[in-house]
Amino acid sequence: MRNSRCHFTRFTSLNLNLIRRCLLLLSSAYVLSSTLSLHSAEDPVLVGAGDIASCNSSGDEATAKLLDNIDGTVFTLGDNVYEAGTATEFARCYDPSWGRHKSRTRPAVGNHEYFTPGARDYFNYFGHTAGDPLKGYYSFDIGSWHVVVLNSVCGLVGGCDIGSPQERWLKADLAAHPTSCIIAYWHHPSSRMQPLTRVLYVAGVDIVLNGHIHYYERSVLQNAENVADPIRGFRKFIVGTGGKGHGTLGPPSPLSQVRNNDTFGVLKLTLHPKNYDWNFIPEAGKTFSDAGHGTCSSKPQRTYVTFLPSTAR
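The structure assignment produced for this chain is given below.
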């Protein structure tokens, strides 16, 4: 009887241990499934580059092949086709490569498009997705993110200064779209865009994308005054790697973290509800890459402050 009682005690203890282990496994599985639900395979993708197509380069064919295997919305960062953004150049040089993704492309205009008066052939090619031809700036939503596309050829659209039509539109657009995560992109990474960048910073922009310079660069989190800001700052990428050519690297900015000027490729952004992943994907045969994860900044109350104009550099 004593042996039977002891055996029963051991058996019960074993069962309790098994139950504890099962509960632990179930708890871990629940945590894992909850984490995975935050990063769903259905989270939208924004992918692209700038400074893209030329009939004198095969780089755009190489980067278009990358897009062939990536679902999502395609962005362009201006200078979509060289040398002057004419209808003939779009037909012969852009359309056979990146043009096969035209239906899912949200473009930005560059200075080369305006070598054709009014960037007429650029707006004719992309149609309504490029925005009002008299403006060239617009916005759209992708998942829970709000995306703003600006025109950095400021002199041809009424300027980019405080009080300009584009600045007034930007404030109104951001006020009408109080989303938790914001992306903005345009062509020139220059001081002429600082008044608009200040508006974006006040609104809590998370990612800024530029082209124009023919290389890849990722910078630290920063504010609109080009000062590191790890708390509320935005992450800036230059992605002039669409295929036209490779630029020369000058001395690095103190804000620069990663640079490369010998690899064509595209930047893929996977946009989760409150954070994102970035991945620079190189053309076939190249090994440079850059990947990481970021979190949307805490959004301040959107009260816009008027800044005095900065001296042009």
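Interim note for the steering committee: The first strand starts at residue 45 and ends at 49. The longest helix spans residues 2-38.
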